[in-house]
Amino acid sequence: MSKVTTILKDLVALPSVNPRSATDLPPDLVGEQRVTEYVEGFIRGLKLDVIIQETGQPGRYNVGAAMLQGNDRGTLLLQSHMDTVGIGSDPGLLTPVERDGAIYGRGACDDKGSLAAMLAALEAVARTPDRIENNVIVMAVVGEETGFEGSLALVTQPPTAGADFAVVGEPTECRIVTGCKGVGRWRIETSGTACHSAYPDKGVNAIYRMARIVQELEGYQCELAGSIDDKLGPETVSVGTIRGGTAVNVVPDSCEIEVDRRLTRRVSPEQARDLVGQYLRGRGIDFEFAMSELSDAQPAALVEDCHPGVRLLAGVSRLLGLDDTTGVVSYASDANRMNAAGIPTVVWGPGSIEVAHSRQEFVSIADLETAVEFYRGVILATAL
């Protein structure tokens, strides 16, 4: 069994469900602390300098390794997240399974595969630190799936704040991703007047009102499909949840939906929310509705192909016989927040986003081993 496979199996077996995603799980499955302790012990075993970044939440902190060459060198940051989404009703997802040349389990590709590969690469280069030309920092962070506590600490605390270039590990099928759509999320609420369902004309049905809004948002998606960013593609809108009513025999007096907008460089999250309100009123929605503050706001991010860091990654890809072209993705990640904070950040990692969060989440062992060599090559690359 290869080193990276062993590390990944260890990580998958350590539950780290994001606390905000865990509504009814026992405490021993929630939070990143078990993975944090594993990573810290791994780094201390390599006799490297350990970085601890507190997030203000008990037991939830970023941990990483620093190999610093001096103030006259550029700083290269590699980062993966330790938290996962929930497991639903399937505790078997926490037992790593090796099958058909792949490792299955919660977090196998999102994002413990990237983390395992970074740790294995770190172990490989720790034997010959004199070959490293840049200041290199490898970080494992908390709270990427929701909450973002880890990346917020990363961009505000030393020694990671102000890094010259960063690579975020996420499942990109071992391809260089230089652009990520932004995201804006918020709630819309309609109000009505409750009454007995036998006399619905005596009340105002908040769900019926919301149905009109949902229908208009479906039409808005068609309009957005025609708004194309030359690099990031079209924007989207989606209604992800709906809640309303208290009983089948009561006309509901409130209804709420959650809206997800994926953004290009054309608009900010705040502008996107305001434009939805304007669109609904322009389409004849003549009753009052309330829109909340943004629960998630990340602007779109794009690092140009001419950036020295992107050229560095392309060079490593060519040496390994990998695709050296760049692409973009529709999902957001810590890379969005890091770019917004002024750290040029791209995404690269093993596995496919198409199986992330699913019951069949997996990463191929071939991808894992490729990732180790890629991250090792990046760490040992010529000066930024």
Describe this structure in words.
- This protein has 384 residues and is α+β, with helices and mostly antiparallel strands.
- It is built from nine helices and 21 strands.
- A hairpin with a 2-residue loop joins strand 4 (97-99) and strand 5.
- The protein is globular, with a radius of gyration of 23 Å.
- The protein starts with a helix and ends in a 5-residue tail after the last helix.
- 46% of the residues are buried.
Provide keyphrases for this structure:
384 residues, alpha+beta, Aminopeptidase, Alpha-Beta Plaits, six-stranded mixed beta sheet, five-stranded antiparallel beta sheet, 9 helices, globular
In brief:
The chain is of the alpha+beta class.
- How many strand units? 21
CATH fold description of the largest domain = Aminopeptidase
Task: Kindly report the average pLDDT value.
Answer: 96
- What strand line-up does the widest sheet have? 1-2-6-3-7-20
